[in-house]
Amino acid sequence: MPLKLVVWDFDGTLADSLPAAVRIFNRLAPQFGYAPLGDVAAARNTGTRQLLRQLGVSLWRLPRLVRAFQAAAAEEADQLKLVPGVGDALAALAAGGTRLGVLSSNREDTIRRCLRANGAEHHFAFVVGYPRLFGKAKALRRILRAEHVARTDALYVGDEQRDVDAARRAGVTVAAVTWGFHTADLLRAAAPDYVVGDARELPAVFAAHRAGAPPQQL
User: With a cut of 70, which residues of the chain have pLDDT below it?
Assistant: First the structure.
């Protein structure tokens, strides 16, 4: 089947931002009255909603924390690096005529600054900064309509269970990458179409999808 559109999450998927995210959250936690994130390995194996509860972050206060976090992250956007191997995958896809975009909970300007600093912004036709941690399915459906692309011709790449859930709700094939926030075990529990452990394996996923091969875990 054709692969006309690949939409990427940003933090933890394109950008190697987990260390910076932990550092920023722990810097903000005292002013919001939240517990700091100490055991990163345990956090990576915990669903997002459960982790928020463990840290004392209520959903009604979450938007304020997200705004403060994003403002702090924007200051470091130029310093973030792409995950090793991702740049080559982007170049290969773009060269093959696949349209690329970003859908992330981060801010568009932050994403673009990072991509620009890493020489990758030109690969992307659009960048969508969706301001909520949950609800990406709605944004994905909007992107498909705007791009005039069928669900079967698109693929979403993300690093968290909520990315897998969003793609499932939008009816889009999803590749979950294990180098970001959530562990391989946690991602597999969400039943993505593909689980990818190394960015160098991404071209094989895209080729398998184009060929109509059955889902696989790489």
Answer: 1-2, 212-218
Q: For the beta carbon of residue 125, count every other beta carbon within 10 angstroms.
A: 12
Within 13 Å and on the Cβ side, how many CA atoms surround 154?
A: 25
88 and 118 within one domain: yes
Cβ atoms of 82 and 120 closer than 8 Å: yes
Residues 135, 190, single domain; the answer is: yes
- Please check whether residues 62 and 9 belong to one and the same domain: no
216-217 β-sheet, strand order: 126-129, 99-104, 5-8, 154-158, 173-177, 194-196, 216-217
Instruction: Give the end-to-end CA distance of the chain in Å, rounded to a whole number.
Output: 20
Domain that holds residue 61: 18-78
| Domain total in the chain | 2
Q: Please give the share of the chain, as a percent, with pLDDT higher than 90.
A: 76
Asked if 9 is an active-site residue, the reply is yes
Give dist(CA 83, CA 180) in Å, integer: 9
| CA 65 centroid distance within chain | 19
Which pTM was predicted? 0.92
24 in the same domain as 11? no
Residue 201 has what DSSP assignment? G
Closest among 154, 145, 147, 150 to 8, alpha carbons compared: 154
- Rounded to an integer, what distance in angstroms lies between the CA atom of residue 151 and that of residue 154? 5
- The one catalytic residue among 9, 153, 159, 163: 9
Residue (of 66, 77, 81, 78) closest to 132 by Cα position: 66
